[in-house]
Amino acid sequence: MVIREIDNKRDYLPLLLLADEQENMIDLYLDRGTMFLLEDDGVVKGECVVTDEGNGVLEIQNLAVSQTYQGKGYGKKLIEYVVDRYKDQYAVLQVGTGDSPLTVPFYEHCGFVQHQILKNYIIDNYDQPIFEGGKQLVDKVVLRMDL
């Protein structure tokens, strides 16, 4: 398994859209973010985009694993890589996600704790309703871990 930083981030838009379903929302962070690809056996299996949010905060803006490879630990490996790479440069790693019954527990399992809830963020900022795990996402949950 290899994780590497890449510059041609737009080439991976289909993968980015797995984690953030609206392209104009991706546009808000992609150019200022650093993107990492996870490849295993020569196949791209996941990606992660992080941004410097100031005041010692690094944020995961996008984390996606190809549907075929989900549930095999690749998302967790990307988070571990980011933590290891940036632990001496930042105090906090945070991530914001919809109030999903699937995604929030994943991040909590990876060591994040809920920090705040942005009410109605999903319905106010996305053109179409987003459903995950049979639930319509409404709020944005911000989770954090100390580095």
Instruction: Tally the structural domains.
Output: 1
User: Which structural category fits the helices and strands?
Assistant: alpha+beta
Mean of the pLDDT scores?
96
Kindly estimate the percentage of residues that lie in beta strands according to DSSP.
35-45%
Shape label: globular
Q: What topology, given as strand order, has the largest sheet?
A: 1-2-3-4-5-9-6
Q: How many strands, what sense, and barrel or not for the largest sheet?
A: 7 strands, mixed
CATH level-3 fold name = Aminopeptidase
Using the CA coordinates, give the radius of gyration: 14 Å
| Total beta-strand segments | 9
Unreliable runs: none
- SSE string, helix = H, strand = E? EHHEEEHEHEHEEE
CATH architecture group name = 3-Layer(aba) Sandwich
N-to-C terminal Cα separation, in Å? 24 Å
Helix content: 10-25%
- How many DSSP helices? 5
Textual characterization of the structure:
With 147 residues, the chain is of the alpha+beta class. It has a single domain, classed as Gcn5-related N-acetyltransferase (GNAT) (Aminopeptidase, 3-Layer(aba) Sandwich). It contains 5 helices and 9 strands. The strands form 2 sheets. A 7-stranded mixed beta sheet has the order 1-2-3-4-5-9-6, with helices on both faces. A two-stranded antiparallel ribbon has the order 7-8. It is globular, with a radius of gyration of 14 Å. The chain starts with a strand and ends with a strand.
